[in-house]
Design brief:
The protein is 71% helix and 2% strand. The protein is mainly α and 374 residues long. The chain has a two-stranded antiparallel ribbon. Helix 4 (61-85) runs parallel beside helix 9 and helix 5 (93-110) runs parallel beside helix 7. The two termini are 20 Å apart.
Length: 374
């Protein structure tokens, strides 16, 4: 058996030589023992409990209306995940939803434009809104929280100023029916899931399997280090805000057609639901960590809790308290798990060193000088 000799120490056999692979967790642990899988497990558990204990929850319309009502949040959560992973935040998304809703109403009802043309213009305005946020954050260097709080008020003010307290409701039935259409006759899944699924696949591929996505994670971990590794930090942040504006405008078009009403106060408060779902889904508020499958599960979990508690007769305030507590626990859990992991790693390192001292073998380097010597 071959051996490995270390300067100033005894020889180590190949079996005793430590490698990174020796310390890595098995694949099943890395896949299942994650916050994202915990959220998915909790979603399944809550859904099954609600189906078995709440009257009417297991009816054929439950999934149908669940997906219809959570569709705008599912859409906006996709780009919001990227924004938060970079260490930024966008609080103006719901205002962009309201602004695009107003534009569709005015352009179609008053100006006589078709829904596709009015929708295209609304999405273009959403891109401009996102680009304005991105420019101030990425190139001017202003904090995203302050910028998007300001643009939240700005975009909402423009929406209310354009329409006032009036509501535009004269939309063609073929378009309002399309927003509620099912994938097939008698199906529990609405047609809106098709664009959501397509966008989700695209965002997963971009975020997890492209250099751009790796740059998003690197920026969230350390934007200065990302810059020195060749990531265009400003451009990456700018693109994420533009995507958030465009998808929010698209969600506003769906919101308008689904409810059949264009109002300046549409989707008020939705930004908090989106951010809650993103953080609940395992994305770190400090950036650099997260996965889209956990975010989608977080959105559906909040939707299931909302639906179940409404059927049980709970008020909106009680539902918000439950979701708020769940969100706080999810944020605390990440810090708690990191602390436990660091504590466990420290204990394991100390145990290995004590064993090495007892046996006269050196399985771990004591310091940087020893690593360099080896």
């Amino acid at each position: 058996m071959s051996t490995t000799t270390t300067p100033g120490g005894p020889a180590l056999s190949e079996r005793e030589t430590r490698t990174y692979r020796a310390y890595s967790r098995p694949l099943w642990m890395r896949a299942l023992l994650t916050r994202e899988f915990a959220v998915i497990f909790l979603l399944v558990a809550v859904f099954l409990y609600a189906r078995g204990s709440i009257e009417f929850f297991d009816g054929p319309l439950t999934l149908y209306y669940l997906f219809l009502e959570t569709a705008p949040i599912l859409l906006i959560a996709l780009p919001m995940t990227m924004v938060v992973i970079t260490g930024e935040i966008d609080l103006s998304v719901a205002s962009v939803v309201g602004l695009s809703s107003v534009l569709v109403g005015i352009l179609h009802v008053d100006a006589g434009l078709s829904i596709p043309v009015a929708g295209a213009i609304a999405i273009a305005v959403g891109v401009v809104c996102g680009a304005f946020n991105g420019f101030l954050v990425a190139y001017v260097g202003l904090p995203s929280l302050a910028v998007t709080i300001g643009t939240l008020a700005l975009y909402r003010g423009i929406a209310v100023g354009l329409l006032g307290t009036e509501a535009k409701t004269d939309f063609p039935e073929k378009w309002t029916d399309l927003a509620r259409e099912r994938i097939s006759e008698g199906s529990s899944y609405p047609l809106v899931l098709v664009p959501i699924a397509v966008l989700a696949v695209l965002f997963v591929l971009v975020l997890h399997f492209t250099p751009f996505g790796r740059g998003v994670f690197e920026i969230g971990l350390n934007d200065e280090a990302a810059h020195f590794t060749g990531v265009d930090v400003a451009r990456t942040k700018f693109v994420t805000f533009v995507l958030a504006g465009a998808i929010s405008a698209f969600a506003g078009i769906y919101f308008t057609l689904y409810y059949g009403s264009a109002r300046g106060d549409n989707a008020t408060g939705m930004e908090l639901q989106v951010i809650a779902a993103v953080l609940l889904g395992g994305v770190s508020i400090f950036g650099g960590k997260g996965a889209l499958h956990g975010v989608l599960a977080g959105v559906l979990l909040i939707g299931v809790i909302n639906s179940a508690m409404r059927l049980e007769g709970y008020t909106v305030n009680v539902i918000n308290i439950v979701i708020g507590v769940l969100l706080v626990l999810s944020v605390i859990s990440s810090s708690l798990l990191s602390w436990v992991s660091a504590l466990t790693s420290g204990r394991n390192t100390g145990l290995l060193r004590r064993r090495s001292a007892a046996t006269g073998k050196r399985s771990l380097p004591e310091n940087t000088h020893e690593r360099d010597a080896r």
